Amino acid sequence: MKVVEFEETLDKDIGWRKKEISDLYLLAQNNNTNEALLKSLILLLYAHWEGFIKNSSKLYLKYVSDKRIKLKRLETNFHAILIKNDIKNLTSTANSDSIESELKFISSLNKSNKKFKIKIDMDDLKESLVINTEHNLSEKVLRRIFAFTGLKYKSSLETKKECINSHLLASRNAIAHGDAIDGTTRRDFSLSLEDINKLKHIILAIMDSIKEEFSDYASKEFYLINKKLEKERYEQERERLLKEEFKRIEDAFPKENAFLSLIQLIYNYLQRS
Predict the structure, then answer these.
(1) Distance CA 125, CA 129 (A)
(2) What is the pLDDT of residues 135-151, one digit of tens each?
(3) pLDDT at residue 160 above 70?
(4) In a domain, 253, yes or no
(5) Is the model's pLDDT at 153 over the cut of 90?
(6) Sequence-ordered list of residues with C-beta below 8 angstroms from that of 188, at least 6 positions apart, any chain
(7) Cα separations in angstroms, 180 against 122, 173, 190, 191
(8) Helix, strand or coil, per DSSP, at residue 70
(9) What pLDDT, on the 0 to 100 scale, is given for residue 85?
(10) Which residue has the higher pLDDT, 136 or 83?
């Protein structure tokens, strides 16, 4: 796969996802009292969040794998991927009377001249041996995927931990299990078009950032160990850009002032009394 093809595939994958989210948001915008539409928007947003992160990560690893580069030229995450696969194979034969698998594993530890090659089926949507989102793509799982692919986890992403875990994932799980999303129990997020719109902007910003990074990692060959210094400078710039984008979103959705928040809390309390 050439880098142009890789980038075009990434663009196409995120493009149709963003269109579906946008189309459903416009529908919800015209019917913002329809709770079913608002719930559907959260479900769709999560589905494309998990789907894109998994697909783009698999595609990037496939891109590197197809190049058949020797491990001694690659960053350490690629060494870890192969060792992880070897351990899985060893575990599956642990009860065998033969020690052939164990001997093969020991000899495989010296992989410096071995080429990085793993089997990735992009058409297998249920495959989870390479990239496992655990069907619950939390901030913790996202951090693990970053380490697996070699991307640097940004400190600005840490500031959106609550947004990913509680606003998106927990809301999606609540809807999937037929539970209510109630602003009285989750004061910083409710089933309102404005809150969902802000969530949409944040999640799409993260997806866009990841897409750009995978494209740049491929074109600038940041998977190579001799690109480490250049990669570090690049990641500092990406951190700055993502931080600025989050600030722009926060500025576009100002929080309620303290007085209005207090009034809302009193109202919620009286409603429950």
Answers:
(1) 11
(2) 899 999 999 999 999 99
(3) yes
(4) yes
(5) yes
(6) 162, 167
(7) 36, 10, 10, 9
(8) strand
(9) 65
(10) 136
Q: Is residue 2 within 8 Å of residue 63, measured between CB atoms?
A: no
In a domain, 138, yes or no: yes
pLDDT of 186 > 70? The answer is no
Q: Residue 224 forms beta bridges with which residues?
A: 74
Residue ranges making up the domain that contains 147: 3-68+117-272
Is residue 57 within 8 Å of 149, Cβ to Cβ?
yes
Joined together, the tokens standing for residue 268 give 């919620």
Number of structural domains (the chain) is: 1
Q: Which of these, 111, 108, 10, 97, lies nearest to 59 by C-alpha position? A: 10
Q: Does 45 score more than 90 pLDDT?
A: yes
Distance separating alpha carbons of residues 18 and 88, to the nearest angstrom = 36
Is the distance from CB of 66 to CB of 9 less than 8 angstroms?
no
| pLDDT number for residue 205 | 97
Q: Other C-beta atoms within 10 Å of 62: how many?
A: 19
Tokens 């992009």: give the residue: 122
Backbone φ, ψ for residue 255 (5° rounding): -75, 155
Determine the pLDDT at residue 130: 74
- 73 inside domain: no
Please give the mean pLDDT across all residues of the chain. Answer: 85
CB 199: neighbour CB atoms within 10 A?
23
Task: Let me know if residue 24 belongs to a domain.
Answer: yes
